Task: structure prediction
Amino acid sequence: MTAKETFDRLAEKFPQFELAYVEGKDPAILVQGDNLVELAQHLRDEQEYDYCSSITSVDYPDHFEVVYHLYSWKKEGGPVILKVHADREDPKVPSVVSIWRGADWQEREVWDLMGIHFDGHPNLTRVLMWEGFEGHPLRKDFPGTEDEYAFG
Amino acid sequence: MTQEDLVPPELRGNVLIAPVDWIYNLGRAGSVWPMMFGLACCAFEMIVTLTSRYDLARFGMEFMRASPRQTELMIVAGTVTKKMAPQVVRLYDQMPEPKYVMAMGACAISGGPFKDGYSVVPGVDKLLPVNVYVPGCPPRPESLLDAVLKLHKEIREETIRTSPWYRKDVDREIPVPEYGPRGLVLPKGEKSE
Result:
């Protein structure tokens, strides 16, 4: 099934949700954060996308974007790419750990490095940087480390 | 006075007179045991140097010891991340003296391509005293063998009289850095990067 067909099925099934089809080399479906969990539930249960292979994030000048790659082991299909925009000042996206357990550490990584808060995550702590680290280093406005490491 | 005068004629050919430094360093340099310790891709070049094709055993280094207590050479093979740096320093502190450090590869020397990154120590010499630098990304096994020979040369040139290992007045303690809000912090509270 192509991405366009998946999008059409979703748009037909959820006419009340605001969905957008993003053209490109890897076409994606832009969804609203509020609808994400319900769409994810539908994609997993009805359309058998049982494997969330990747959750990552992009820092755009005026917003953040969280990208989900979904595959299906059952029907050997995919990827279905979902994109969610998050506010630049207070980025919040609902967690999909309740749908795909494998999203746990991936959401923690996005929180750690990009600072996007996943509402409903069972244990949203840093996973790569240590506790007590300030800031989220993959953000474009994270300061560089030009100052020399002083030792002694 | 030459050797001829000191050695009785019947013992010539059996007795060798040499400085203590020479004979002691000969033994030390011929048996430098490295630590079984790799941080990134350079470790694979180090591992292949141990195999039969390059055969590090020729230089008395056939044992990679899994415990720092039994090693005298730390080959820092790979990127030293800030998260790993305290453990690297702690391993160094656990090695018995005399001990030597080899910085293998661009990352261990200067941070390499990750120098400006938020997570990488720009060179292990910011943390530990490095004896030999092995450039390359990664260095080929021949480079590592050459570095081993350079280390042997350095050991052979040490003297008991001046090397720091046998002196009480030299402060050789390496402080273990701690995690700070933006990078590593020295335990005294001095701000580092």
The interface with chain A takes residues 83, 116-119, 121-122, 126-127, 179-184, 186, 190-193 of chain B (CB under 8 Å). The helical segments of chain B are 3-6, 20-29, 42-50, 85-94, 105-110, 141-157. Chain B has one domain: 3-159+180-185. Residues 38 and 44 of chain B are 8 Å apart (CA to CA).
